[in-house]
Design brief:
Strand order of the largest sheet: 10-9-11-12-14-13
Oligomer: single chain
Helix content: 40-55%
Number of helices: 27
Bound molecules: thiamine diphosphate, magnesium ion
Radius of gyration: 28 Å
Distance between the termini: 90 Å
Number of strands: 20
Low-confidence stretches: none
Structural class: alpha/beta
Largest sheet: 6 strands, parallel
Strand content: 5-15%
Mean pLDDT: 98
Length: about 650
């Protein structure tokens, strides 16, 4: 006898309520409410092979409503993934269990992305769908032909990033993206009519989406809606009307079940109501068989794909791309050498473009873009034609003024694999996409942020556009490599380091203003040390000037002026504090000796520089907002010139 579909769905409900009860923490409402929809999706539609979680042509599934993590854990286990095991689920939310409070892509192979910050899962899914179309255009239907599915809640659709993400998806015509909206009209504070009266479906339609609605507890209706979505060429939103916590007789359809254990009495009442007699964490054999046999259907599809991959002339290149291995970079290597012969005096945003011209020619994986600042961020190269609905083979995305949407989409592309995304905006607007940068770092994704106009050096646009606290605050983010190169050679070196970082994002802080060449030797990537001695003291060393980016020029002039007075001064260029921190203690001590006055020079907040200068050092920077004026006037006004710095150094030396 085949087991009823309802029993398959109830297994998700039971595991979710029991795991949350055992942890005495978690969110049972969403998994119980969406259990029926998830069951139809996984047992009938999703293309996947639980025995090969990373199969490149699998459908991607993103649980954007990440608080409903038990939905993912229950489903993956029931479908037959090796992990989570039932023991993992028993340890839901406990230290070292891969069943973390919110799904984490680094914990379970079946979890495509870390979610929890509402809205971002959906926005990452847009990037995954872009990646699918792009790789399809390059490698064809035989190798790349899959969909991206999202389960999103009211919260995901309310967040501002939702607007950016669906605008991009609608414009790009990403018809293989299907969002299943848990339309339960409940959020934490209560019913959604407390805070919204928006016609969400109308908003999606206005953005170029196809919309459907279904009863999220009626298997046939769910199927009908999904079939309609599959048949439509536009991205689809399916409003699945559900009851949050469905099955819990006294708590369903109320915000109380959103994020609290049901309690022993209600767990018992739910078992009764569902007719679920199995003990906690025990799945009846016929239910497990029902799940496993339905979810085994992907194995033969996977095998057929594998055969196509082996026979495909582009198979090896496709596998390289998906593995994230870089090809040789002859154009870039030649470019680096050319800098020795002709040291350019250009802004680092320009030297970034020059490096990118070579890199995008060498590395087809690179897909660039900008949030409407292409001409300012210098992110577009000859090798990268526009990516749009008429040409998904293009490698340059006009993201529009959607910094957060861009960053989240880049995360999605990186998570999908096969693509190495980079995107630009002004550094000051890193705040607009900061939580997506954070998710790049948490998810260990290779995304490169090209952030130009990195200081008061941008000049006349004034304090709203002049980053002050940004570089230092971004350095505080774990697993984000922040680079602030000083000239064309350092910029090229930092690009090479960023691309070599397989397990995390990088951010390049680049100048608007022209900067002289300070490096004339490319035999070693000195930026890889994070900081290095750019100039050694001539006279007996009394001072070490440590600077980054555009202030390296200022440090060199300051050193020259000090040497003229017989005071020996080293100059240390520090393009990356993170890479410097990783050097051996002896290297760091040699560079920043305790017997010299150490002076930091950076056109940003001084907070944090004491780590390198000591409390008895001198920190030269800007601990206030900037001002609107030409850059040179601002450098003088804020005391970031050799003329202003030398007297401060002399004064400190005399004390
Ligand atoms: C950006 C962000 N803001 C706030 C939260 C905290 N939070 C988690 S779930 C939730 C309510 C979400 O409501 P809904 O998506 O309808 O989920 P449901 O209650 O239906 O499960 C909130 C505010 C969050 N996770 N992310
Ligand atoms: Mg809700």
């Amino acid at each position: 006898m085949t087991v009823e579909k309802q029993q398959l769905a109830n297994a998700i409900r039971a595991l979710s309520m029991d795991a949350v009860q055992a942890a005495n923490s978690g969110h049972p409402g969403m998994p119980m409410g969406m259990a029926d929809v998830a069951t139809v999706l996984f047992t009938e539609f999703l293309k996947f092979d639980p025995k090969a979680p990373k199969w490149a042509d699998r459908d991607r599934f993103v649980l954007s409503a990440g608080h409903g993590s038990m939905l993912a854990y229950a489903t993956l286990h029931l479908a037959g993934y090796a992990r989570p095991s039932m023991d993992d689920i028993r340890n839901f939310r406990q230290l070292h269990s891969p069943c973390a409070g919110h799904p984490e892509n680094t914990e379970l192979e079946g979890v495509e992305s870390t979610t929890g910050p509402l809205g971002q899962g959906l926005a990452m899914a847009v990037g995954m769908a872009m990646a699918e179309r792009h790789l399809n255009a390059e490698f064809g239907d035989g190798l790349v032909d899959h969909r991206t599915w999202v389960i999103a809640g009211d919260g995901c659709l309310m967040e501002g990033i939702n607007h950016e993400a669906i605008g991009l998806a609608g414009h790009l015509g990403l018809g293989r993206l299907i969002v299943l909206w848990d339309d339960n009209r409940i959020t934490i504070d209560g019913r959604t009519d407390l805070s919204t009266s928006e016609d969400i479906a109308a908003r999606y339609r206005a953005t170029g989406w196809h919309t459907e609605a279904c009863d999220g507890h009626d298997f046939a209706d769910i199927r009908r809606a999904i079939d309609a979505a599959l048949a439509d060429g536009r991205p689809s939103l399916i409003a699945c009307r559900t009851l949050i916590g469905k099955g819990a007789p006294n708590k369903q359809d109320s915000s109380g079940i959103h994020g609290s254990p049901l309690g022993a009495d209600e767990v018992a009442a739910t078992r009764e109501a569902l007719g679920w007699t199995a003990e906690p964490f025990d799945i009846p054999a016929d239910v497990l068989d029902g799940w496993r046999s339905a979810c085994g259907r992907g194995a033969s599809v996977h095998a057929a794909w594998q055969a196509r991959l082996s026979a495909d002339a582009k198979g090896a290149e496709f596998s390289r791309r998906m593995a994230g291995d870089l090809p040789a970079t002859p154009a870039f290597d030649a470019y680096l050498q050319s800098l020795v012969a002709n040291p350019p005096k250009v802004a680092t945003r320009k030297s970034s473009e020059m490096a990118l011209e070579a890199l995008t020619a060498d590395i087809p994986d690179l897909v660039g873009g900008s949030a409407d600042l292409t001409g300012s961020n210098n992110t577009k190269t000859k090798a990268t034609a526009p990516f749009n609905r008429n040409d998904y083979a293009g490698r340059y995305v006009y993201y529009g003024i959607r910094e957060f949407g861009m960053a989240a989409a880049m995360n999605g592309m990186a998570l999908h694999g096969g693509i190495l995304p980079y995107g630009g905006t002004f550094l000051v607007f890193s705040d607009y996409c900061r939580n997506a940068i954070r998710l790049s770092a948490i998810q260990h994704q290779r995304v490169v942020y090209v952030m130009t106009h990195d200081s008061i050096g941008l000049g006349e646009d004034g304090p709203t556009h002049q980053p002050v606290e940004h570089v230092m605050s971004l350095r505080a983010m774990p697993n984000l490599a922040v680079f602030r190169p000083a000239d064309a050679v350092e910029t090229a070196e930092c690009w090479a380091l960023a691309l070599a970082r397989k397990d995390g994002p990088s951010l390049l802080a680049l100048s608007r203003q022209n900067l002289p060449a300070v490096r004339f030797d490319v035999s070693e990537n000195l930026s890889a040390k994070g900081g290095y001695r750019l100039k050694a003291a001539g006279a007996a060393r009394k001072v070490v000037l440590v600077a980054t980016g555009s202030e390296v020029e200022v440090a060199l002039k300051t050193a020259e002026a000090l040497e003229a007075k017989g005071i020996g001064a080293d100059v240390v260029s520090m393009p990356s504090t993170e890479y410097f921190d990783a050097q051996p203690a002896s290297y760091k001590a040699d560079l920043l000796p305790r017997d010299a006055l150490i002076v930091s020079i950076e056109a940003g907040v001084t907070m944090g520089w004491e780590r390198y200068t000591g409390l008895d050092g001198l920190n030269i920077g800007i601990d206030r907002f900037g001002a609107s004026a030409p850059a040179e006037a601002l450098y003088d006004y804020f005391g970031l010139t050799a003329e202003k710095i030398v007297p401060r150094v002399l004064e400190r030396l005399s004390n």
